[in-house]
Amino acid sequence: MYTQGLDQKGKVVQSSDASESADQLDAFQKRVDAEDKIEAKDWMPAAYRRTLLRQISQHAHSEIIGMQPEGNWLTRAPTLKRKAILLAKVQDEAGHGLYLYSAAETLGVSRDQMVADLLSGKAKYSSIFNYPTLTWADIGAIGWLVDGAAIMNQIPLCRCSYGPYARAMVRICKEESFHQRQGFDIMFELSRGNDEQKAMAQDALNRWWWPSLMMFGPNDSDSKHSAQSMAWKIKRFSNDELRQKFVDVTVPQAEFLGLRVPDDDLSINDKTGHYEFGDIDWQEFYDVLAGNGPCNRQRIEKRGQAQVDGAWVRDAARAYADKHATAAAA
Ligand code: FAQ
Q: What's the pLDDT score for residue 17?
């Protein structure tokens, strides 16, 4: 990527890292340090643009692919009320994906290109969405744990240095907060149900706990982007800091539900007030990232088919826009 900005008509103006002067980089960092928001047409280092594009597009893809595991239960929700709530949640995820694609497009790459990169495997999406939803309790666990982890990671993104991303995150976080509560509510009801329902809730926690911790990314010592992203105030906390906050908040919630977190090494450190927890299976994480999780192929296949099935809608929308543009020009 060698794009440098959008001119008044939204046309991409080219430049590359090599053309960046020390003065420009210094002035940019000063703006970031002063908590000035960087906007789409402002000068920015090419590497800042690349980092944002990578992260925002990965985030958008995650929201869209993340509709699949829950969509699996839309027709099987236990009550009409649960179905209506889940339908609204899945629609929210679609909306989040769309705001995020729009935010990423301000950096000079088209949505078609981003989707092509997802389908070719060039762009990642969150590891968490490569796990199956085997029972209704998984829908509770996703809301409680996955949305819970997402909120922990995303609230600081509302203060991201890039304005379009930061602003998109405000509404997303409000909606994620509702999602987390609906998930906890499902777990609450199951954990107060009969033995079979309690076992179902425990089984879902057993399967989703460790993948949820992996959502925060590799340990800080192995996180290749964190230091630079924090200097640019894209990230405000490191992966390990956010993971720790999540564990500290979530373990008491599991205790309240009467469920056991599947970690024999979990204990509270009375001196620090933080929970200490066992080692994450990073081999599993990297296997999932390499495309070998339980559902990777299925997720991408389904997304690819949806892209093909939706082609006529995009064609029709383009034809309609062209017709109106021609009429306006005449
Ligand atoms: N999965 O150097 P770092 C949601 C990659 S939305 C896959 O630490 P960074 C809502 C990373 O890309 C969930 N890949 O990277 C919802 C990099 O590879 P690359 C998504 C991962 O960017 C709920 C490499 O590892 N949220 O849940 C993962 O500084 C329910 C090295 O890592 C966001 O995207 C992972 N878990 O930190 C929807 C939030 N972790 O690109 C439906 C925004 C790391 O060099 C239902 N993103 N990698 O090839 C972020 O905050 C950051 O990008 C991190 C990773 C924290 C995810």
A: 83
